[in-house]
Amino acid sequence: MKRSGLLVGILFVLLLELMALASIRYLYQDRRDAYLRSGYSEMERSYRSVLETYELFSRAVFNETINKPAVINLLYQAASSDRQKQALLRHQLHTMMQPSYQGLLQNHLNQIHFHLPDLSSFLRMHRPAVFGDNLAPVRPALVVANKRRAYVSGFEVGRHEGGFRFIFPLFRGGELAGTVETSISFDSFITQLRRRFAGEYMLLIKSDLTTQRLFSNVQSRLVPSPFSSHFLQAPIQENFHADHLSSAEIHTVASAIKPEIEQAQLAKRPIALSAPLQNSSVSVYLMPLTNIEGTPEAFLVQLNRDANLQSLKEGYVIAAWSASLVALLGGVFIVSLYKRTREMSGLNRLFHQAIDALPYPFHIIDAKTYQIKVANRQAAHGVEKVEEMTCHALSHGCAQPCGSSEHPCPIQMVMETGTAAVVEHKHTATNGEERIVEVHGYPIHDEQGGISRCIEYVIDITERRLMEQQLQRLAETDPLTGTANRRRFYDMLAIEIDRASRHDRQLSVLMLDLDHFKEINDNNGHDVGDRVLARLVELLGSLLRTSDLLGRSGGDEFLILAPETGFDEAGILAQKLLVAIREKLHDPKAGLVTVSMGGASFKAGDTPDELVKRADLALYRAKQQGRDRFEAGEQ
Question: What pTM does this model have?
Answer without folding.
Answer: 0.49
